[in-house]
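testing teh design pipeline on a random one, pls ignore if ur not involved
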C-alpha cells in the first residue's frame, strides 16, 4: 500500500511539473519537464531521505556526540524490532523531530537541539518511539518523497517568477514573470493538496498508538506532545519555514501558520492526540514502568 500511494503521488506531482513546463516553454518546455520529472522521480525514490535531511540542516551524530539520546534510540529500535537507524541532530531551538528513509533498513531519525534541551529522557523516548513507529509502518517513504517533489514544484514556480523579473522590461521575460507569479499562487496549493491526500492524518494517530506501545508508556508521549505544541507556537523554526513542504514530516507542525505555508500541514488536532494517548494509558493502568531511559 505505501508503494501504491507513492506511485500515485509521483504521478500527480509529475503532472503538475509537465503543466508548469508547458506554460513556461511550450512543447520544448513540456519535453524538458518530462525528462526532468522522470529523472527527479528516480532521484526522489533513492535519495529523498538525503535531500530532506539536507533541506532540514541535519547533521549525523554518533554515540560519542549525544550518548543519552543515541542510547534511547538504540533501545527503542531494539524494542520495535527494527535495525538501528542513522541518528541526526538539527540545530534549531524549536523542539521537534521526524523520521525519514525509504524502508527500515535505510531509515534515519532526526531531532532538534531544542527537543533534547527541553524534554525529559522519558518524553524524548516517547517522541522517538513515535518516529520509529512511522519507520515500522513504512510511512516514511511517501512522507519523504512528498516533501522533495512538492518542494521542487514550489522552487520551479519561484524560478519562473524570478527569471522573468531578472529580464527587466523584456516582453518575453515579463510574460514569464507573470506566469511564474500565477503558478506560485496556484500550483503551491495544488501541490499541498496532493500531499494532504497522500498523507492521511490517521498516520499520526497510528504512529502515536504504536509509539506508545514501543516505549511502554503512553503518557510519556502525551506529555511530550503537550510541551512540543506549546513550544511550536512560541519558538520559530526558520529552517522549516524556508522549506514548508517538509512540515508534514515533523511530529508537530513546525510552521507559524502565516501565509500559505500552513497548507502543507497534515497534523491532526493535538488535543485529540493527547486524549487518545491518555485513554490508552487508562486502559493500561497498572502496567510496570518501561525503562530505564537516558
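output:
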Amino acid at each position: 500500500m505505501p508503494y501504491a500511494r507513492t506511485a500515485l503521488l509521483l504521478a500527480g506531482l509529475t503532472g503538475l511539473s509537465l503543466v508548469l513546463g508547458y506554460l513556461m516553454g511550450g512543447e520544448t518546455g513540456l519535453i524538458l519537464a518530462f525528462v526532468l520529472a522522470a529523472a527527479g522521480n528516480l532521484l526522489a525514490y533513492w535519495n529523498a531521505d538525503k535531500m530532506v535531511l539536507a533541506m532540514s540542516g541535519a547533521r549525523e551524530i554518533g554515540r560519542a556526540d549525544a550518548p543519552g539520546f543515541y542510547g534511547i534510540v538504540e533501545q527503542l529500535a531494539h524494542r520495535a524490532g527494527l535495525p538501528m537507524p542513522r541518528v541526526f541532530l538539527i540545530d534549531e531551538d524549536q523542539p521537534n523531530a521526524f523520521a525519514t528513509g525509504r524502508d527500515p533498513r535505510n531509515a534515519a531519525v532526526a531531532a532538534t537541539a531544542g527537543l533534547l534541551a527541553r524534554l525529559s529522557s522519558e518524553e524524548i523516548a516517547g517522541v522517538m518511539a513515535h518516529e520509529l513507529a512511522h519507520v515500522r509502518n513504512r510511512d516514511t517513504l511517501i512522507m519523504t518523497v512528498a516533501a522533495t517533489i512538492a518542494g521542487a514544484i514550489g522552487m520551479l514556480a519561484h524560478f519562473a517568477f524570478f527569471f522573468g523579473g531578472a529580464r527587466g522590461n523584456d516582453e518575453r521575460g515579463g510574460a514569464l514573470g507573470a506566469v511564474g507569479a500565477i503558478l506560485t499562487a496556484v500550483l503551491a496549493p495544488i501541490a499541498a493538496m496532493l500531499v494532504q491526500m497522500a498523507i492521511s492524518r490517521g498516520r499520526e494517530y497510528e504512529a502515536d498508538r504504536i509509539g506508545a506501545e514501543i516505549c511502554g508508556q503512553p503518557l510519556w508521549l502525551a506529555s511530550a506532545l503537550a510541551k512540543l505544541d506549546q513550544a511550536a507556537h512560541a519558538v520559530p523554526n526558520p529552517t522549516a519555514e524556508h522549506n514548508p513542504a517538509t512540515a508534514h514530516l515533523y511530529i508537530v507542525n513546525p510552521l507559524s501558520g502565516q501565509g500559505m505555508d500552513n497548507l502543507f500541514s497534515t497534523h491532526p488536532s493535538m488535543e485529540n492526540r493527547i486524549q487518545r494517548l491518555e485513554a490508552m494509558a487508562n486502559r493500561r493502568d497498572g502496567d510496570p514502568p518501561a525503562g530505564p531511559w537516558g
